[in-house]
Amino acid sequence: MARTKEFDPDAALWAALELFWRRGYEATSMSDLVEHLGIGRASIYATFGNKRELYLKALARYEQGLLPDLLADLSQPGPALPGVRALVRRYAAEASADDSRLHGCFVTNTAAELAAHDAVAARRVERNWDQLETVLHSALARARAEGDLPAGRDPLALARMLLVLLQGMRVVGKASPDPARMRDAAEAALALLD
């Protein structure tokens, strides 16, 4: 007779996500995961696979919360440009906030740590960035159709610039507690939307 799990796999996945997010992939050992999750090594392997598989599952869980929030933020009724501006300013504020500053963005962290030598991680990062770019492009195209973005502005090029800015904020924010740096960068980028 098979034994029932004595732990909540969803809670364990969230705990693994938090540890990987805080420490990174390489700095997190299986022993660290066993201790942090409070479950045995065999249970981790049986439920999630090896450390890399657990990391990729944690990345998928993280991503599940991103796109729906972005779509909701940028798909509100009414003009699209205020939503784009609010999103950029939110990223700037979050990048310099003490509670999230040192963690950065889990996708950005994955890009910096794993994408150069892990093809699966690189594809996942690229897919996430493609989704963010698509959401921004759609909102900016809508803003141009609404007359809020000048006709000479290329919504796709602006979406790509904002994608790079947002990801860059996540990286710089990990090392710099200066909110003025983030705010100034955000406002300079947003000025290109006028």
UniProtKB/TrEMBL annotation:
HTH tetR-type domain residues are 6-66
The cross-references to InterPro entries, in alphabetical order and at most eight, read: Homeodomain-like_sf, HTH_TetR, Tet_transcr_reg_TetR-rel_C_sf, TetR_C
Secretion signal: which residues? none
Q: What keywords appear on the UniProt entry?
A: DNA-binding, Transcription, Transcription regulation
Residue ranges of DNA binding:
29-48
**PROSITE patterns to which the protein is assigned, alphabetical:** HTH_TETR_2
Instruction: Tell me which domain of life the UniProt entry assigns to the organism this sequence originates from.
Output: Bacteria
Give the transmembrane ranges: none
Is the Protein biosynthesis keyword given for this protein? no
Q: Which PANTHER family match?
A: HTH-TYPE TRANSCRIPTIONAL REGULATOR YJDC, TRANSCRIPTIONAL REGULATORY PROTEIN
Protein's name according to its UniProt entry: TetR/AcrR family transcriptional regulator
Organism field: Streptomyces rubrogriseus
